[in-house]
């Protein structure tokens, strides 16, 4: 479990300028953006995040406006330090913006109090971290079930079995995280996010610690969760091959969205990434 869920502080949306409806497409759309017509699962409007102050100031996000469509698989790419993790954390309500707004479904996160935000994260959002954030004293199965158990439900057993089978953990369910390899822990984290069937899953390099075969299995499963079960996924990755599993790639550089691409292939993504150098 991510620590410190209850402690995040969120700026209030100011009422000086009325915000558009959460599901209005962000204005203006980034260059090359498709016209967003479908209802968005989540998004950011002119999102800016500044860390530190004075000469230590870092503008991690610099006016990001983006929407993520329901039942789509979106990859976020960009050089190291371009703000990918910051964007995901702010979208998921794990960190707060300096200015601008983020929304999940019809809800601006800044309008929620801490208790409501915790509830929204528990019920609507799944997060796969770069660090796995597993509870060390719980078994793999208990870790996977934890988000649902906290809400007092067992979830769908058939779905649990399918998730666990796909990520190859069926014979590791009784193990604690310390008894699992890094790749297996990563797969527990993926299974935990998908088992709860949240409205949206944010995944920060979910295959970064996996060999290419188990990475491909996880990516394929995530894509199936989108195509066959209507899951919505936003995934940060460095890997053009991983990005090619997505329906759309959004490119960040220096805290800004600089491009995006529909129906990516590993080759077209690689070509685009080369132009960052
Ligand atoms: N907690 C923090 N305090 C200060 N600076 C940070 C913090 N988190 C991220 N940054 C800085 O913000 C920028 C964007 O970071 P991040 O979102 O982690 O990039 P990415 O995930 O694309 O590698 C980087 O310059 C990073 O050093
Ligand atoms: Mg990162």
Which compounds are bound in this model?
A: adenosine-5'-diphosphate, magnesium ion
Instruction: Tell how many strands the DSSP assignment holds.
Output: 10
Order of helices and strands: EEEHEEHEHHHEHEHEEH
Q: For the record, what is the CATH homologous superfamily label of the domain at 69-94 and 112-274?
A: P-loop containing nucleotide triphosphate hydrolases
- Tell me the Rg in angstroms: 18 Å
- Average pLDDT value? 86
Output the strand order for the largest sheet: 6-7-8-3-9-10
User: Major sheet: size, sense and barrel closure?
Assistant: 6 strands, mixed
Tell me, briefly, the overall form. Answer: globular
Helix content: 25-40%
Number of helices: 8
Q: Which parts are unreliable, with pLDDT below 50 for 5 consecutive residues or more?
A: 1-17, 25-37
Structural class: alpha/beta
- CATH domain fold name of the domain at 69-94 and 112-274: Rossmann fold
Return the CATH architecture of the domain at 69-94 and 112-274: 3-Layer(aba) Sandwich
Strand content: 15-25%
Q: What's the CATH first level of the domain at 69-94 and 112-274?
A: Alpha Beta
CA(first)-CA(last) distance: 37 Å
């Amino acid at each position: 479990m991510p620590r410190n869920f209850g402690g995040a502080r969120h700026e209030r949306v100011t009422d000086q300028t009325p915000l558009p409806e959460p599901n209005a497409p962000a204005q203006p759309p980034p260059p090359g953006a498709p016209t967003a017509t479908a209802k968005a699962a989540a998004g950011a409007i002119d999102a800016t995040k500044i860390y530190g102050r004075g000469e230590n100031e870092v503008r991690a996000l610099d006016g990001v406006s983006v929407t993520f469509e329901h039942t789509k698989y979106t990859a976020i790419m960009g050089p190291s330090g371009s703000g990918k993790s910051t964007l995901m954390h702010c979208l998921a309500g794990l960190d707060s913006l300096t200015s601008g707004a983020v929304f999940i479904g019809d809800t601006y996160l800044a309008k929620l109090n801490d208790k409501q935000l915790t509830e929204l994260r528990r019920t609507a959002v799944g997060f796969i971290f770069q660090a796995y954030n597993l509870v060390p004293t719980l078994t793999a199965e208990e870790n996977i079930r934890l988000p649902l158990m906290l809400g007092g439900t067992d979830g769908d057993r058939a779905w649990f079995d399918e998730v666990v089978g796909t990520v190859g953990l069926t014979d590791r369910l009784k193990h604690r995280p310390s008894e699992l390899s890094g790749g297996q822990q990563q797969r527990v984290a993926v299974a935990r996010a998908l088992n709860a069937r949240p409205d949206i899953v944010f995944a920060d390099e979910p295959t970064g610690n996996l060999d290419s075969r188990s990475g491909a299995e996880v990516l394929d499963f995530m894509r199936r969760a989108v195509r066959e079960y209507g899951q919505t996924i936003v995934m940060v990755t460095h890997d053009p091959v991983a990005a090619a599993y997505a329906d759309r790639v959004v490119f960040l550089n220096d805290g800004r969205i600089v491009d995006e691409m529909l129906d990516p292939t590993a080759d077209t993504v690689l070509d685009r990434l080369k132009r960052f150098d």
